[in-house]
Amino acid sequence: ENLESNGLPGEILTGDLRRESLPAGDFDLVVSNPPYFPVGSGKSGGPARSEEFCSLEELCAAAGRLVKNGGRFTLCHRPERLVDVLCALRAQSLEPKRLKLVSHNPAHPPFLLLAEAVKQDRPGLTIE
What share of the chain is helix, strand, coil (3-state, %, to 5)? Predict the structure, then answer.
């Protein structure tokens, strides 16, 4: 519905990314709004917001397996996990290319980071 309402082509696939049921190296783009908090971090939100069922490392491993060379992986995450995100991406040959921090207004600190990585690309990060 979201693709259609925005006039975009594509197909949405759902499933457990940690399983190898989806074809490896077959995707131009993988998008994720993952769980934000490591297990035991004390942050609230329950299993839907914690890495209880899928860690950041597992998510990036799945994205690295699914996207073709030159394909993109985009995700949103918490600013306090920036180093974790960048390290997890690079560990899977997903080179961070774009990063944007989002805040409600200039008087408030960022509450969200948006990142885009390209598989098997050269280093070079643009901060937007």
Answer: 20, 30, 50
